Amino acid sequence: MSDFDPADCLARYRALVRDRPDRFTNPDGDIYEILHEDSAIERARRDALDHRRAEGLPTDDIRVGVLAVDPYLIVMRDAVRFADGRYGLYNRLMVASGAAILPVLDNAIALLYRFRHGTRQWHMEVPRGSFSGVGTRAEEAERELLEEIGSRPLELVDLGKLHATTGCLDEVHQLYLARIDAVGAPDKHEAIEEIKVLPVATVERLIADGQITDGPTLALFLRARLRGLL
Q1: How do strand 33-34 and strand 65-69 relate by DSSP bridges?
Q2: Quick one: 125 and 32 in the same domain?
Q3: Residue ending a domain, choose from 63, 95, 127
Q4: Which of 128, 171, 195, 200 could serve as 100's disulfide partner, Cβ 3.0–4.6 Å?
């Protein structure tokens, strides 16, 4: 996965623990406890190796720590004690959090019809993007809305947070509903083919029929609906 040797992986990991301790907490309860002591890490590696051999899984990489670094994500492997007391390894991805915005135009919703590299498919979804660290979260959401659909919000309503995939991803979306009065041109660089302005009832039907599958879009629609905003 990378050229980091086991010692380098662990050294980078320990530096990350110091810099981002919030990502390595061990709350109370029966959890996947992150292990930090050398002896516990070695036990987790040995037990993981035994498990992989028994299951016929690849055994060539049981490094613990930071496996790969990219400007957009960090690939990690933690040594853990599972909730049942067994030891092993668990992979995680650390990625930038971002905003997802539900654009409401009168009694309709503006959705992007865009291609997504991860699924290699076309999707209908709300505008969203990662935080850059410049400005407040609301300001970053407004910028994302302007970039992707050419709209400025008349009103921006904070709908709280969403953890879209909790198994191995730490990404958090800050959800907003934006009331707008027009849409502009789609951002072609982002592979947005069209901006579809659809009645709320049509969007609800597309969700029920399984034609809209994007997690933040589903969460935004549900939360806005339950709060009586649609």
Answers
A1: unpaired
A2: no
A3: 95
A4: 128
pLDDT tens track for 198-210:
999 999 999 999 9
Q: What is the pLDDT of residue 2?
A: 59
Helices and strands in the chain, H and E counts: 5, 11
Do residues 91 and 110 share a domain?
no
Counted domains in the chain: 2
Residue (of 94, 193, 73, 173) closest to 129 by Cα position: 173
Where on the phi/psi map is residue 80: left (φ > 0), alpha (ψ -120 to 50), or beta?
A: beta
Is pTM, for the whole model, over 0.85? yes
Specify burial of residue 107 (Cβ count, 10 A radius: 0-12, 13-18, 19+). exposed
> Nearest 5°: CA angle at 149, between 143 and 154?
65
Range(s) of the domain holding residue 12 = 6-95
Based on the domain organization, do 25 and 103 belong to the same domain?
no
Q: Are residues 176 and 195 in the same domain?
A: yes
Q: Are residues 212 and 111 in the same domain?
A: yes
Alpha carbons 161 and 76: distance in angstroms, whole number: 24
Is residue 162 a contact partner of residue 216, using CB atoms and an 8 Å limit? yes
As beta bridge partners, residue 78 has 90
pLDDT in tens, 68-127: 998 889 999 999 999 999 999 999 999 999 999 999 999 999 999 999 999 999 999 999
Residues 131 and 222 in one domain: yes
For the domain that residue 128 is a member of, what is the CATH number? Answer: 3.90.79.10
